[in-house]
Amino acid sequence: MNFQTKTDALVTITVDREGLYTLINAVLSAIQHAEDWNFGDEYDTDVTPYHEVLSSLKEKYENVYGKFE
Questions:
Q1: Which pLDDT belongs to residue 1?
Q2: pLDDT higher at 68 or 19
Q3: How far is CA 4 from CA 8, 9, 48, in A?
Q4: Which residues contact 64 (CB under 8 A, 6 or more apart)?
Q5: What is the pTM of this model?
Q6: What is the per-residue pLDDT across 42-53, written as a single tens digit (0 to 9) for each?
Q7: How many CA atoms lie within 13 A of 51 on its CB side?
Q8: At how many degrees (to 10) do helices 17-37 and 48-65 cross?
Q9: Structural domain boundaries in the chain
Q10: Quick one: CA torsion of 34, 40, 45, 49, rounded to 10 degrees?
Q11: Are 20 and 63 contacting, i.e. CB atoms less than 8 angstroms apart?
């Protein structure tokens, strides 16, 4: 999962403030769901990529709209 813009990208997605807010909340929900089902065994989901996506989306939100609340 990489949100760096590439010149050879096939698709570019543009969202407004509400869309970005929805994406952030979807990632938060995915993290919570994964953590609810992680029981400390070998089947656990690594949520590090989700946190990286969350940080990237929040940074984009705050650069344009200010503090995310």
A1: 39
A2: 19
A3: 11, 10, 17
A4: 17, 20
A5: 0.77
A6: 989 899 999 999
A7: 6
A8: 160
A9: 17-65
A10: 90
A11: no
- Provide the token pair at 25: 């909340």
Segments in the chain forming alpha helices (H): 17-37, 48-65
- Measured distance CA(28)–CA(41) in Å, rounded: 22
- Max Cα distance, the chain (Å): 41
Instruction: Look up residue 53 and give its two tokens.
Output: 């996506």
Output the six-digit token pair for 17: 């403030």
Q: Can you tell me the distance from the alpha carbon of 24 to that of 18, in angstroms, rounded to the nearest whole number?
A: 10
Query: Which pLDDT belongs to residue 7?
Result: 67
Residue type, 17: R
pLDDT digits (tens, 9 = 90+) for 11-32: 778 889 999 999 999 999 999 9
Higher pLDDT, 2 or 34: 34
